[in-house]
Structure formats: C-alpha cells, structure tokens
Write a structure and sequence with these properties.
The protein is α+β, with helices and mostly antiparallel strands. It has one domain. Helix content is about 30%, strand content about 30%. Strands 1-2-4-3 form a four-stranded antiparallel β-sheet. Strand 1 and strand 2 form a beta hairpin. The longest helix has 19 residues.
Amino acid sequence: MDRTCPGPASASGFRLLTSRRHEGLSLAGLKMIIERAEIMHEGGVTHDGEGSHYYGSTLFTLDIDSMSECLAGATGEETCSRLLDHLRAHPFFRVHLMRLARREVLRRVGSLPLLPLCGELRGRVEGRRILIDLDVEFHGLTNLLAQPAL
C-alpha cells in the first residue's frame, strides 16, 4: 500500500520572532495593594413577602500615593486606570473581595449555608484613588434568621 504524504506547507511573509510587551500585576504587588487599601462594608437584611434577603456593598479604596515607591513616580490617573484594569482582571483579587464580603455577611446574619453569594464588581478612578465596589446579594434567609447563630 503506497501512501503519499503531502510535503510541508510553505509559509511566507511571517516573522520568526515577535516582540510583545506584557504588563501584569504580580502576586507580591497584589498583596501589597490589599495591605495598603482601606476596606469598608455596609449592608443589611431586608424582609418582603418572599422571605429575607441580604444586600451589601464592600468598598475597596486605594490611594495611589501609598504605592509611590513601587511605581517609579508614575502616580497619575493613567497609572490608576491601568492598575484598576489589572485588579478587575486578577482572579485572586475578586476571590479576596468575595471572601471579605462573605465574612461580613456571616458576621451580620450569624450563619450562612454554602449557597452562592452573588456579586457585581464595579470600579472607577477618582483623581489619585482607585475605588472598587463589590455589591453582593444573598437570598433565602427565611430559615436562617430563625436559627441561633453558631
């Protein structure tokens, strides 16, 4: 049985090496940002005909001036915008905020089953500050509020 294989495909007009600039947020940088930020949480339980619901917001505020030694003097709004983009895209950052929010819900409600906590992340730059809000919702608290806290 004679099989003939086609020859190698010819390629033309490509570059053997390409250069690409990649900027990202390191884990050490993320840890430093988290340590230097101010975090505030507000929220509470509301009751309606469908049961009890928790609505809250975790506000993460970073003053860029607190990071100046790591930014080589680039502490303007452009740097804040780039940092905000990296924070929004960083999976560990979102997980960190969700854990903080869940801990706060537990503190305020008393007990919480392993049900999903829905959250929406929004961010903005105001001058030399990065402001990130995580709004959370938790529904189905009817049975939980009747139980004593653990």
